[in-house]
Structures are given as C-alpha cells and as structure tokens.
Amino acid sequence: MYKKILVPVDILEAELTKKVIPDLTYLAKLSNADVIFFHALPIASAIVNAYSFGFEEFKDKATLQAEEQLHTLMNSIDLPREKLSCAIAFGNPRDEILACADEIHPDLIIIGSRRPNITTHVLGSNAAGIVRGAKTSVLVVR
Description:
Blueprint: E1 4-8, H1 14-31, E2 34-41, H2 43-53, H3 55-75, E3 84-90, H4 93-104, E4 108-112, H5 125-133, E5 137-141
Parallel strand pairs: 1-2, 1-4, 2-3, 4-5
C-alpha cells in the first residue's frame, strides 16, 4: 500500500500534530511504511533573529531545537524507531514540503489542518497549498 509516508509538522502546533498521529500510526503499521517527519523553519523568523545572533549561529541553534522536538515526537509514537526519520529545512513551509516530497517521492503525505475560517476557506493555507501542488496523494486530517 504505502512504502514511504511524509508527515509535515509544525513543532509549534502540538495540537495539530496530535490529530495526525492516529491516522499515521494506523497506516504506517498496516503498510510497514517508512515515515519521514518534516519541519520547515520559516525564513522570516530566521531573518529577524539573525540580527541578534548572526545567521549561521541562529540557523544551527534553531535546527538543533527543531531536531530535539522532532526526536521527542518520534519517541512518543508507537512505531519501530528504524522506520522513523526526520528532516528540517529553512523557508516557506509549503514550498519546502513540496520540495521535500519531490526529492524523496513519498507514496502519501499526511498533514493536519485547522478548522477553516474566512481566510483559509476550506483548508489551512499550507494544507491547501500542499494539496494543490503535490504530485502524490495527500491525506488532510482535521
């Protein structure tokens, strides 16, 4: 069924991530799939903080913090550790998620979405962009 599942997460949105985990765990166990968690650090926050740290120092610090949080998430999931990995990038989340998907060729992308409102219409802005731009199946969990 699925060999590789990409799971974009926002480490600052724990509630959104929690919604995805039951579906992810079920599908990954059913298919014995590899799971890649992905987090994009927005470049806007990097630029703001770069003034106080210097960009490379900030990038290293932000990457380490994101990796720690992704590893904490992976350790909390009931899947074999050898089936889990993570990746981090700097940039626009939608663009970086789609670039990651183009690079690793997942069979499925699972992403959480907030309740829609007038600004996001049906899906959250990142989820909608991923659904429109992905070259593979996308499961949006609310």
